[in-house]
Amino acid sequence: MENRTLRILEAIVDEYIRTGEAVGSKLIAEKLDNAVSSATIRNEMAALEQQGYLEHTHTSSGRLPTYQGLRLYIEKVMSPAQLPDEEKEEIDRIFDNIGGATDDEIIDNASRALADITKCAIVSTNTVNKFSVITKVDVIPTGKRMYVLLLITSEGNIRNRVCRLSFDLTNEQMDFFTQFVNENLKGVNLDELSDEYIDKLTQAMGGYMMTLSPLLKAVVDISAEMQQQVEFSGEKNLLTCSDFSNTQIATILDGKNELCSWLDDTFSGIQIKFGAESDTFAVTNSSLIAASFNKDGRKAGSFGVIGPVRLDYKKLIPYIEYFSSKVTDALSAGNDEEEKNEEKEADSV
């Protein structure tokens, strides 16, 4: 494709992103400083339409980019803006202030900060806990037939679940359960808690099986939640987006499973996904700019800026790239600090 054609496509997409309106040849000529005649631009636009990169509206003579055209623009044409040094310094200060935080806190704080800076809605996944090891399980009575289960992992993360039983547990039953689960689950990775593994543990409880199996199921439920968390930040930013109806906003916020699968497919680098390309996500005029972050050399989660298809990709991509790199550094720094503390403890013995 000739450079002139790509320049025309870029001008059309840039104007569409700015206004959301169909773009005509006269405006593109002005954008190109009248270096190309309107007639030539119309011919180029017609060719781009034949190739599937533009579409013609019925209400005007202008053109709109198709999803194919947007993808060509993103992957081959546009040059992402450079993140200003003052913006980088502002982001650096945010991460300087979350030193000593848990992995969950680092990801949560970064998601909120990214939403505040970009004025967009942010969806994030946290798979750090998938590789965590269970360090302690405890059960605490809180009322008549009410018990709270606590699960603590090697990452320092704590989750709880309230369990309502149809009977009160004796001290002997609670002591047995606490000793049993810690003997059998301490040191086990969360992702090792398969149905088969849990069935074996349930059978191993013997006479306590019927009484205590609801608590064991709660442990499994907590571990499943910790392995894959999907969170939204800056949801209010969607409300100011005129491209979405209230029904579409509700669909986006309720579509965690679909968004989770989108983010699961994100590995190194920036990934762009359009709602129209998904068979399950109902909001076809949406898009997601996603990037993953790592811990110890393996994927620990992903960020996604979600909004209409006419997101400002040039502006937003540098932000999400920088945030994902900072989260990777923060998660790794936390792990380095733990190793140093362990070495100090070993030296003091």
Automatic annotation (TrEMBL):
A GO molecular-function descriptor: DNA binding
Pfam families: HrcA
Keyword field: Repressor, Stress response, Transcription, Transcription regulation
Source organism superkingdom: Bacteria
Gene Ontology BP annotations: negative regulation of DNA-templated transcription
Annotated ranges, domain Heat-inducible transcription repressor HrcA C-terminal: 104-317
Family the entry assigns: Belongs to the HrcA family.
NCBIfam families (alphabetical): hrcA
HAMAP family in the record: HrcA
Function text: Negative regulator of class I heat shock genes (grpE-dnaK-dnaJ and groELS operons). Prevents heat-shock induction of these operons.
Protein name: Heat-inducible transcription repressor HrcA
Provenance organism: [Eubacterium] siraeum DSM 15702
